[in-house]
Design a protein that fits this description.
single chain, Aldehyde Dehydrogenase, Chain A, domain 1, Aldehyde Dehydrogenase, Chain A, domain 2, seven-stranded mixed beta sheet, 16 helices, binds nicotinamide-adenine-dinucleotide, oxidoreductase activity, acting on the aldehyde or oxo group of donors, NAD or NADP as acceptor, Ald_DH_CS_GLU
Amino acid sequence: MTGFTMTINGAATTGDGTFDVIDPATGEVFAQAPDSGRGHLDAAMNAAAEAYRHWKLDEEVRRRALLDAADALDSGAERLARLLTSEQGRPLPEARAEIGWATMWLRYYADLEIPREIVQDDQNGFAEVARRPMGVVAAIAPWNLPIILAIWKIAPALLAGNTMVLKPSPFTPLATLAMGEMVRGVFPPGVLNIVSGQDPLGAWMTAHPTPRKITFTGSVATGMKVAAAAAKDLKRVTLELGGNDPAIVLEDADLARIADDVFTGAFMNNGQNCMVIKRVYVHERRHADLVEALAERAKAARVGSGFDDVQLGPIANRPQFDRVSELVTDAIAHGAVAAAGGRALERPGYFFEPTILTGVSDGIRIVDEEQFGPALPVIAYRDLDDVVDRANDTPYGLTASVWTDDDARAADVASRLECGQVTVNAHGNGLRPDLPFGGHKQSGIGVTNGPWGLHRYTELQALTRPARTTSALDNERQTV
Ligand code: NAD
């Protein structure tokens, strides 16, 4: 598949060369993406800086453009979904849902107020606090949810009056490039530029003198490099990073009712969402039953090409497939037992059996690290205080869930968990346009979504005006 172009200054732009895009269901090259050199990046940054001069001026124009962008994505939804399934592997119905979320987020932000707070308006004068745009935003996205995670950046940043240069992951550039084509006529030239390339392109973006803000979603290791690069000229950052998200199943939990949701909470998108359950802690009296219920579901899960009738597709790329394989092998070498799965499927592509591991605990890599794939350790605990400490004993702090019918106990446990979102009797259903999503500790800096996400793309500006009848000197006397 060829013909993908970058969007720079509103125009289709080829790269200095191309790079291969692999279909994870076959392990074969299936498309070429344009490879941006430094010259194209400079052109994109210059276009964004020039477009900013006008884009920041008219809020109504921006709101209409976000609505038009949502309509454009609706029209192109099937093409985008098929590209997502081809490059990322997720089942087509889920890819379609991802495009649906993207349009929902665009419409949410098109309607969201940009706050303006009047602090004083009386005979002595006027004072207000407004939120102003920042300038050019450099946006860098990962491969696990390419479109929705890009839209989480585009919608609030553009509403606030910023312009953007966006780079998708080199593993999944195609749907994002196609989205750029679809909205070329919607945004004025230079407002949304999309460049594609390998990892060094991301580093060039963060070191570039033009952007005033970097919004990054990806791993903690890369997030630290981004923060270090941003520190050189004090660019603002939002970092949405990895997680090692615990689910804590209390003794009273109704396993028959929750087992499906625990399984989905861990295995959605083949375990490749930042906020999925990465480790389950279950009371020791319920451990065997929960392992059995989850193993049953793992064995029954249909795994295959995302274009077939399946629940789980392939792991999205070779490095991630190797990592999941390595962590499962390591766990089994340390005494873990695979109650389901435990190895790769013998077929082309990056398919791995949905895996439930027992006989494993803290201190083993698959429990301590972010596996980001279809393998779930299920760990028994005895004491609730102890398990809360174990859940918190990690550099990560993205999300967690508590499973019990006792609301007061759930609220108490939630209050002691060090993370940005806690869900009760569900996992991950706090991902909504109107709720903040972000990590504590090394899982990130700042939040996305809701007004809080919008604020991250603005700078505060205080504006004061003395009363018209008062001289500047009088005013100074009054305020001293
Ligand atoms: P990654 O860090 O390898 O890459 C992310 C992006 O950064 C890619 O576009 C990559 O090309 C770019 N990049 C690589 N090196 C760079 C550098 N030195 N400077 C700037 N950019 C650079 O992450 P990934 O493997 O693509 O994504 C998986 C990770 O993302 C997981 O850890 C997952 O938890 C995390 N994630 C977090 C969230 C969240 O909202 N918190 C959401 C999705 C994924």
